[in-house]
């Protein structure tokens, strides 16, 4: 019985101390850093949903909960579905603290695209700390030629030279072949 009481007391102390200690990123023995809890893909949207529209911007709103444990360093986007491959103007990529409808401070970033996989990588000059919301606006050269649902896989990476990405899920955009398209007015 004394051993059981000691085991229960030890477990209780461990639980209480883990609740009161500030969260930190999870670090594997090999030095790989991971988020402690989920970064959230809150919403994906486009400013124009007609096919072939040129002035569209695709927004992805993310949230870093207070208990995420590590700052956000980069986000990777990959088109997963859709009837047409969308090409982007990487030099026009923008990011802000806040969300699409409430942009606060513009963030400095660098973007690149892997020609083989098509993945677009957005790297922040200053990591985004836990407890923040941000929105990333990708600028397509134009909306796709084919109507339908397009899914973009979104993966977030914490700071660190060796970091493990967390797949946040698909950002869903839908494009229509309708009178809402600017090409219909030509």
Radius of gyration: 21 Å
The secondary structure category is mainly beta
Number of strands: 12
> For this entry, what is the oligomeric state of its chains?
single chain
What is the strand arrangement across the widest sheet?
A: 3-4-10-6-7
Strand content: 35-45%
- Report the uncertain regions: 15-24, 180-186
Anisotropy-based shape: globular
Tally of separate helices? 1
Q: Biggest β-sheet: count, sense, barrel?
A: 5 strands, antiparallel
- As a percent range, the share of helical residues equals 10-25%
Alpha-carbon distance between the two ends: 85 Å
SSE order, as H and E?
HEEEEEEEEEEEE
Mean of residue pLDDT values = 86
Can you describe this structure?
- This protein is mainly beta and 186 residues long.
- Helix content is 10%, strand content 42%.
- The protein contains 1 helix and 12 strands.
- The protein has one helix at residues 2-20, and strands spanning 26-27, 33-34, 40-46, 58-63, 72-81, 94-99, 102-106, 109-113, 120-128, 133-138, 148-158, 166-175.
- A 5-stranded antiparallel β-sheet has the order 3-4-10-6-7, with no helix packed on it. It has a 5-stranded antiparallel β-sheet with strand order 8-9-5-11-12, with no helix packed on it.
- A hairpin with a 5-residue loop joins strand 1 and strand 2 (33-34).
- The protein is globular, with a radius of gyration of 21 Å.
- The termini are far apart.
Which features characterize this protein?
disordered C terminus, 186 residues, 10% helix, 5-stranded antiparallel beta sheet, mainly beta, globular
List the topology elements.
Layout: H1 2-20, E1 26-27, E2 33-34, E3 40-46, E4 58-63, E5 72-81, E6 94-99, E7 102-106, E8 109-113, E9 120-128, E10 133-138, E11 148-158, E12 166-175
Antiparallel strand pairs: 1-2, 3-4, 4-10, 5-9, 5-11, 6-7, 6-10, 8-9, 11-12
